[in-house]
Amino acid sequence: MIHDKAYVARSVSLGFMSLTLVAGLIILFAAPGPTNALLFAAGADGGVRHGFAFAGAVATGYVAAVLMLGILAAPLLIAAPPLVEALRLAASVYLAAIAWRMWGSTVGETSSGKTTVISPTGIAVATLLNPKGLIITLTLLPPETFGSMPKAFVALALIAVFSAAAGALWLLLGAHASRTLRRAGGRRLANRGSAAILGAFAAALAASALAG
Asked: Please, what is the angle between helix 149-211 and helix 82-104, to 10°?
């Protein structure tokens, strides 16, 4: 009987954690951020042909970031808030570099069909630098998450699924915006319009980081 009660209590706790985590993840992943800005630009640059690869890169990046932060870095980041701002600044510099390359790009795809500016690896790097990983680790996940295999598995699975879904949505939005810009002024306008959006976001992220 005692064993049954303990099992029920663990099940209820796991279910409650899942519901609250899902709500938080939906809001967080839907919001604009470094990864979503880059996905939007990737959709504008090359459409959704490689959508599965980009969505997988997002999921991989977030899972890796949460694992590293949750197991290794969270105590250090809590003790040293400037490191959080350094992450945001690094993400902004990375996005600005991508925006610069997009601005000067005149060819969207190579003969192999891969985009010339943004790759799944680039998306994964941006996601590792994304402050959202820190928010997930420190505010959405209970402190005991990585002390329990079932809780850790459920949390990481939910993060992977919802980040990939949100990534696919932002990729689609970028592809739609690119089609609109192409109709208005061709491929070059589409590239530069997407680069301008990405650059503006990078500048806003840098200003926020420097303001502390």
From this structure: 80
Q: What is the mean pLDDT of residues 163-186?
A: 82
- Distances in Å between the Cα of 48 and the Cα atoms of 55, 58, 59, 210 are 10, 14, 17, 34
Please report where in the chains the tokens 């959709």 appear, as a residue: 43
Spatial distance between the Cα atoms of 39 and 168, rounded to a whole number of angstroms: 8
d(C-alpha 99, C-alpha 105), whole Å: 10
Give me the residue label for tokens 């079932």: 150
Instruction: Count the Cβ atoms, other than its own, within 10 Å of residue 200.
Output: 13
Rounded to whole angstroms, how far apart are CA atoms 17 and 148? 13
| Global model pTM greater than 0.85 | no
Q: What is the mean pLDDT of residues 22-47?
A: 83
